[in-house]
Predict the 3D structure of the following.
Amino acid sequence: MTIESIAAAETDPRRLRLRVENVIEETSDALTLVFADPGTDGTTAFRYRPGQFVTLEIPHAQHTSVARCYSLSSSPDCDERPAISVKRTTGGYASNWLCDNAVVGLTLSALHPAGTFVPPRWDKPLILFAAGSGITPIMSILKTALAIHNQRVELIYANRSPQSVMFADTLNDLTQRYPTRLDVRHWFESERGLPTHTGLREIIPSHADSDAYLCGPASFMDIACAALDSAGLPPDAIHREAFASIETNPFLYTAPRASTAMHGGTPVTAEVEGEDYSFFCPPDTVLLDAMLAQGIDAPFVCREGTCGACAFTLTAGEVEMRVNETLDDYEIKKGMRLACQSVPVSDSVAIVID
Ligand SMILES: Cc1cc2nc3c(=O)[nH]c(=O)nc-3n(C[C@H](O)[C@H](O)[C@H](O)COP(=O)(O)OP(=O)(O)OC[C@H]3O[C@@H](n4cnc5c(N)ncnc54)[C@H](O)[C@@H]3O)c2cc1C
Ligand code: FES
């Protein structure tokens, strides 16, 4: 990382510096990086909810850096330190850089935790589906569910082989600690081939009044969704998290020095983290761009509609989203939208970002 970007990280309230405190080898191609609590390093407090991700800045010779999102595999409710778990992607840049360079003391620039793959309620049994590195946000949700809630948790976890199972020891410990509340069912491709609809349907528990959280390749989540549908779960009880590399680099974004107030367009009132703002969103402009032009410190990461960091609640008016790769039916019904993709289509709009 350049001296300029370290200086920017120290002054930009969007950023954190995360210092690796421990490196744990999960499998031959996956590591967990445990970070020192940034709050105790005298920088901004690090708060997250189970299922959220951080965005890391990974040094890159040609592009200065690239940004990648990694879900927190730790639970804010029972782990002392935040942790992420990274699996090498064949031919991938950042995952291999992290796995090759992660040592105690390595310090990385990061954006604050974000994302909407967070259970809004904990009063129903949980059915969790994970494949490969998709276990990371699921692990955080699972640990919180067991530690501070009291419902049953069923985990269906697909991997190539027993050797590719991440968190195997932790899962064994948890099944022993919570024998009546946690059930882990492994699916090994080496033994049964790729997961199938019928195969998954057979191992899904019978109670339809559950909430389901899924993370893994799209094809796996499609099959798991279909199996949950056959088991009677309604679509708004099923939540998915997709992993992908983001193409933009939020670390290279510089906020405008002064607000560039715009007077034409749709009047918008926005409550952003407790502060009230009123401004105009010009025609054919997404709300995030209009807020940033006003100097409003609105959260974002990818600006591509894939990460959910810019999610807001629409409290009045209508918007149209250009792309939505992350919000599910349940979230849309609750009024959530993506600021980086939403163009107002009503006379006025009111939004809340919390
Ligand atoms: C919300 C979220 C949470 C995530 N959480 C995790 C997590 O907990 N753990 C985890 O391991 N990952 C996670 N990911 C995925 C992670 O962000 C990266 O996408 C992943 O590590 C791969 O990044 P990479 O830089 O190694 O691969 P990339 O360099 O982005 O490459 C990805 C793939 O594209 C191919 N490719 C690259 N460039 C080209 C090209 N020019 N032409 C053709 N093919 C190309 C590569 O060979 C590779 O197969 C998450 C993603 C998101 C959005
Ligand atoms: S910033 Fe990622 S979805 Fe909007």
